[in-house]
Amino acid sequence: MRGAVSSRLHWRVWHRPKQGHTDAEYEDAAAGNPELGRFAIADGATESAFAGDWARCLVTSYTEVMPSDASVHDWFDQARRRFQTLWQNRPLPWYLEEQIREGAHATFLGVQLVPHVSGSWDWHALAVGDCCLFHLRDGVLLQSFPLQVSTEFHQLPALIDSKWERLPAHRQTWGQAKTGDVLLLASDALAQWMLVRHEQNQPVWSELLRLPDDPLAFRLRDLGSDLRNDDLTLVGIELLPESLP
Amino acid sequence: MSHRAEISRSNPTCILLLVDQSRSMNEPFGLQPKRKKAEGVADAINRLLQNLVLKCAKVEGVRDYFHVGLLAYGGEVRSAWGGSLAGEELIPISRVANHPIRVEERRRQVEDGAGGLVEQTVKFPIWFEPRTAKGTPMSEALERAGAIIAKFLERYPDCYPPMVLNLTDGQPTDANPLPAAQALCALGSTDGQVVLFNAHLSSTADAPILFPAEESLLRDPYARLLFRISSLFPPPLRQAARDEGFLIEEMSRGFVFNADLISVIRFLDIGTRVATRMQ
Hints:
The structure holds two protein chains of two kinds. By secondary structure, chain A is of the alpha+beta class. Helix content of chain A is 24%, strand content 30%.
């Protein structure tokens, strides 16, 4: 079963640190696990030195842990523990000790895909903040989550705090997908830019994706100058037919 | 529009604090009779410096988004940095971070994440210590600030405009500070002119007046002078102050009259709220 899921999900990540910054300073994170059908993206809030670490802990744990019957939030507990042990017993300057004490914050978006016997897919998405999921079919946007319009983005999105013991209030949605559909997960600046272009009826999905030949060959090198200077991350997931290897 | 430049390591901005260290700073705040103004101001400044460092701290080190200066005027005008930074003028924030005089531990109430408060031990670095001397050479301090900032602007002509925050409780004893303040505020980068904010510290129990828009609200002629030499709010700070619940009008100035310790902390916080432009 898992193998079947894996072979039917083709996924790719593209990312770029904000201009003037190095790869090591990039504070978004993305991860995918086609075996479990789980994919995630997170955007660390720059105020903390450990924002990138926290974002990585969130996406890694989400994509590693399948929710049990006991708790759908097992992954969050693992993310917290992973973060707490990262810097344990290491000598740190006073300002990093203070930052550890104050914790780190990140927005988060995770999606779980489950194959249906009919060959279609059910998906479930969970979000805190303004990373967005776009569900595309034949190059047309079917759904965007959790934000639907570009004006919903603002300076202070909801964040997950590494000090919290439980996953905070979050938004969820469910959908159904068909073979050939594409799901895109984008961090805020890119997601907002995509929605602006979509609202202005400018080509966006076809510009991003080499539809129909290779939907995941993202064409993001020459993004417009109207894009906010921020870390940019895009995860693309293409749903393939069962018969393909 | 001014104040649109991004603050980055290659294009940092500058924050210069001027602190009155005249004898009267040994008196208590009007609303906090057990707290000497000199000690309260020192705590507020150390806390401000700590917050600036934390805004710039990353795992690989502290990013130099700010160059910070600390000038004291009491008897004479001098650099108020202590320890291994003694005598220096503008210092990149990474050097500030790594060279406090000492790091104390203090107890602080913090949220426990479940709606309650819990007491924790926190690090409290000390860079600036209270001391006082006779005389208030404010005019000379503003002149010196102008010279320091002019040098910074030569090096970073396109920077987010420098901020100067002046904390005083008395009248200048050297000269009318108006010409020196005007010369300071005439300096600028391609992104706008230098911004000068003033806090008048109180020994009376009267309620503070925060960021007034009209001189007529102030009866004290010296307060009027400080009002006149204070800049209007630049747009990003106006928004930050409004977000904090201050009533900021179009003509509001960066001036606080009769400031108690809480007002001093809020004044410093608003005056340095430029982090949204850090890249």
